[in-house]
Design a protein that fits this description.
The complex is a heterodimer. Chain A is an all-alpha fold. Chain A contains 21 helices and 2 strands. In chain A, helix 2 packs parallel to helix 4 and helix 7 packs antiparallel against helix 19. Chain A starts with a helix and ends with a helix. Chain B is mostly helical. The longest helix of chain B has about 40 residues. The termini of chain B are far apart. The relative contact order of chain B is 0.09. The chains are: A mainly alpha, B mainly alpha. Chains A and B meet through helix 8, strand 2, helix 9, helix 17 and helix 18 of A and helix 1, strand 2, helix 2, helix 4 and helix 5 of B.
Chain lengths: ~500, ~180
């Protein structure tokens, strides 16, 4: 009862005109920043952090600037899906998995359905996470602390396993793609020993590593577009994406069909989100994999299944709220964006940690209240803007394609401000286009380059901890079961292969 | 396609071997470290810096061999296909679109992002897309203007201008 009363008071504070306006502006800014390839919530929050000092001076409270930043964070998470669905380019890493089914739906002329599903699943995910956050923040923080390096590595293994076990028909190509992405993630200085690695042809720029967006924009912005131009021969105009009030309401009515993906994404996303160093990207990818695994029609994934849109979107929004939990209760940021938010809290004189809830209730509860309010504003704004997003799809393909190329080039430069990365992005675009012709799946490589920087150090630090003993991944109470499940998932295709061979032999015999 | 499947598997296999070789390099500042010293467990330090990429590259090599076996047994669609890897349309498309993109990036070094964007869009929309000159100019001029206000002014991400930099100085004075 005490929590509900505090929450109601918090929501009331968040609904005050100034805070409401800040939340609205934050959501709209976040939505556009998130939708822009190359920019994500971290850019929006970091760029507008100085602006919050003005807000603090104007309102005299640390809560209002935090509400503004949290609203940007929310908006950006919703926005990431827009470019994934309409352009096929993930705006930021948490939206990668949304591309897998969102883009095919858009190509089928059902972009409205994909965008509505993404918006509503995001709303559902964030709402579930908000409820968990409100009710169980302190005990969940202690669970998160039990996740050490072996547990995080086991979780990463699980993420890869869902892709191998459920990936395309060609297992060696799927494994190759994952390993290639992981090796690309290892380029640059080794963060444990400080030794430079894989600096190809002694090019200095490789020492800063190969960033996720360089590969993702290359694969989806360049490679995918060249693929589409070649396969459609410019006949594809995307004019099927007609938008009316009726089509949006029809898509809203159909949303309950995506209940499975939404519920898996909401739960799994929040759980992965609260783990330090995990964040929204592994959460969304795992949610996609698990939803595909439990689906009755896994073969429809990648072809435009609404569950394939709902799961990652629910997960990345749920994880974003989840990532706030260790940030507020332990002072540990779970993602780069929460690191900037943490910095903001410290600048405003707040001390994140276990005592924050008891020492600063007048800050904490309005902020939690604003999560609910911002989430509500975000879904309304997102649904209202769908006609504008779809307008892009109604452009002739001969206009859309060069604009996507331009956006890919500018987006890559804007992210890292380095022309070398832009050239590298183009190289990846062409390279993965050729690989795709030969049925090499590209998504696992993108997944791997995102998760590689988490997986490698956790594996190595675990082995350092155990003095090289691999049983550390099996003997610990949390890591053990996760590792076993991951190994079973990895071996699943081999079992299927043996089963199919035995069946075909017995058929031949009869 | 069948031939391309095998050639790609061989190329990727060679790439994997190169990556294994490269992973084994020790830090240049320590001449006592021999190649491949860093790919195993080091006493008191855990796995070395080459441990992760080396073994992954080995798995990649194994996958290439597996793909080769599948090619030989004709079990995958590309290994059964007799279609060309790139037909004449794809070759032309790669030349014009890919060539245009390479030209776009090369131009950035000379006339900056906004100048290159303008030229690329005119090339693509007018010559490849066959749009009217009015539509071409509207989009080709509008896109750099929107990009300038979004990136340089709103997001404070200054894109390179190359030799066109002096033209932007009055805009900097007005908006930045």
């Amino acid at each position: 009862m005490e929590i509900i009363a505090a929450l109601m008071d918090g929501v009331w504070q968040a609904l005050q005109p100034t805070n409401l306006l800040l939340a609205f502006i934050g959501v709209v800014v976040g939505l556009f920043v998130g939708a822009m390839p190359g920019l994500g919530s971290v850019n929006g929050v970091a760029i507008l952090l100085p602006f919050t000092f003005v807000i603090q001076e104007m309102t005299g409270s640390a809560t209002s600037p935090m509400i503004f930043l949290a609203a940007i964070y929310y908006g950006a998470m919703y926005g990431g899906a827009i470019s994934s669905i309409t352009l096929g380019i993930p705006g930021a890493s948490p939206a990668v998995a949304t591309t897998f089914d969102g883009r095919p739906l858009a190509l089928k002329g059902q972009a409205d359905k994909a965008l509505v599903t993404a918006a509503l699943a995001s709303f559902a995910g964030a709402t579930v996470a908000n409820v968990f956050f409100t009710a169980f923040a302190p005990p969940l923080a202690s669970v998160a602390l039990k996740f050490g390096n072996p547990e995080i590595f086991a979780l990463m293994l699980m993420a890869f396993a869902t892709f191998v076990g459920l990936g395309g028909d060609d297992i060696p190509k799927t494994i190759f793609s994952i390993c290639f992405g992981l090796v690309l993630a290892a380029v640059g200085f080794d963060e444990i020993t400080g030794a430079p690695r894989l600096a190809f042809f002694d090019i200095v720029e490789f020492q800063h590593g190969i960033r996720f967006l360089v590969l993702a924009i290359g694969v989806y912005g360049i490679g995918e577009m060249i693929w589409t131009i070649n396969s459609s021969r410019y006949k594809q105009t995307h004019t099927e994406a007609n938008i009316t009030f009726a089509t949006v309401t029809a898509a809203i009515r159909e949303f309950p069909k995506a209940w499975k993906g939404t519920s898996i994404g909401s739960g799994l996303g929040f759980f992965v989100g609260i783990l330090p160093a995990a964040g929204a990207t592994p959460g969304s990818l795992m949610a996609y994999g698990v939803t595909k695994m439990v689906s009755k029609n896994p073969e429809k994934f990648g072809q435009g299944d609404v569950d394939g849109v709902a799961a990652p979107e629910a997960a990345n929004n749920s994880a974003s709220t989840g990532a706030m939990l260790p940030m507020m209760t332990l002072g540990i940021p779970g993602s780069p964006t929460t690191a900037v938010l943490l910095a903001g809290m410290v600048i405003w004189g707040l001390q994140p940690g276990p005592l924050l809830f008891s020492n600063q209730p007048d800050f904490v509860w309005p902020l939690i209240g604003s999560f609910y309010v911002s989430n509500f504003i975000a879904v309304i704004v997102n649904l209202a803007f769908i006609p504008i997003f779809l307008w892009m799809l109604r452009m002739p393909f001969t206009i859309l394609a060069p604009l996507i190329f331009v956006l890919s080039v500018v987006g890559t430069y804007a992210a890292y401000q380095n022309m070398f990365d832009v050239w590298l992005m183009l190289l990846f675009g062409f390279g993965f286009y050729f690989l795709r012709i030969l049925d090499y799946p590209v998504a696992p490589a993108v997944l791997a380059i995102v998760l590689g920087p988490i997986a490698e150090p956790t594996l190595r630090q675990s082995l350092l901890l155990s003095d090289g003993d691999w049983s550390i991944f099996f003997t610990r109470p949390i890591a053990g079961p996760i590792t076993v499940v991951a190994i079973i998932l990895i071996l699943l295709p081999v079992f299927k292969l043996i089963r199919d061979r035995l069946r075909s032999r017995s058929k031949e015999a009869t | 396609m069948r031939k391309a499947e095998l050639i790609m598997a061989i190329v990727l296999g060679l790439l994997s071997i190169y990556l294994m070789w490269k992973s084994g390099e020790g830090p240049s500042w320590d001449p006592t470290v021999q190649r491949f010293d860093n790919i195993g467990l080091i006493e008191g330090e855990g796995p070395g810096s080459g441990f992760w990429p080396f073994w992954l590259s080995l798995i990649m090599l194994g996958c290439c061999v597996w793909t080769g076996v599948n090619w030989w047994r004709r079990t995958t669609p590309p290994s059964q296909s007799e279609e060309p890897f790139l037909d004449s349309y794809a070759q032309k498309m790669l030349l014009f679109v890919g060539g245009g993109l390479i030209g776009f990036l090369a131009l950035i070094h000379v006339v900056g992002f906004y100048g290159a964007m303008l030229v690329f869009l005119i090339y693509y929309l007018y010559f490849l897309g066959r749009h009217s000159i009015t539509q071409t100019l509207a989009i080709s001029i509008g896109t750099p203007i929107f990009s300038f206000f979004f990136f340089d002014v709103a997001m404070r991400i200054v894109l390179p201008k190359g030799y066109l930099e002096p033209l932007f100085i009055p805009l900097y004075d007005m908006f930045l």
